[in-house]
Known about the structure:
A: 5 helices; about 0% strand; elongated; B: 3 helical TM bundles of succinate and fumarate reductases; two-stranded antiparallel sheet; 4 helices; 2 strands
Amino acid sequence: MSASTGPRSLRTPLGRVRGLGSAKAGTRHWWLQRVTSLALLPLMLWFVVAALSLVGADYAEVRAFVAAPLHAVLLLLLIGALFHHMAAGLQVVAEDYIRHEALRLGTILLIKAACVLLAAIAAFSVLRVAFT
Amino acid sequence: MSEPQDPRQAFFIGRRSDGTAVQRPLSPHLQVYDMLQVTSLLSILHRITGVLWSAGALLLVWWLAALASGEAAFALVQGFLGSFAGVILLFGLTAAAWYHTLAGIRHLAWDAGWGFSLPEVRRSGLAVVAGTVVLTLLTFAAALILW
Lengths: 132, 147
């Protein structure tokens, strides 16, 4: 009937070639979680050094540090990668441990909303410090 | 069997050797692991430290928002971070962050297909734990010296 030599499957040959699975997203979620983790390695190392350099600094000094173009850009990139990675990770935790379907879906939406909100507040704060 | 709430549970119906139906567990099925077998303990710790670090991200947002809001709001955050509870919290978050970072590198190596043999897994697990202790103490020693 079909040219398939593997075990019987209900998937069409086209569906198998596209490799996107039932959620139609393929490995995108998994892959972006890895990519953001790689991006976070140098960004977090820089942040640890930056945070240590700011120990004991007063308000004006911290503002001047964050407002420096390089620091502001690195902070914005850190915020983007951090909250993408955080949303991806927390979503998988919810998918694994919450059995009730409506509760699971609601939790995932809440996680994503919270991450977008927090990332927006953090990014806006950096921009405001940088531009005032 | 209770009425399944999760459609995925339809895939977890198995049979015992005597032929009776049994519902296979959906994660978390921590009961199937012996936590003295360190590998599974380190694996779940990666998740737990990831969730803890998410709480740490709240602290970062509060700190940045306060910095943008004004001197009084910033003084409040700095006061909290410098308090006894704040320092303990930062110490815990630093340890969680270092663990999640090192264990994450270990996972990336696995994703690339490296280090799957049991001796390698035990060695990399030990390295992650030792690295977490050393880097956490180094980070805090540096912070205390600079304070």
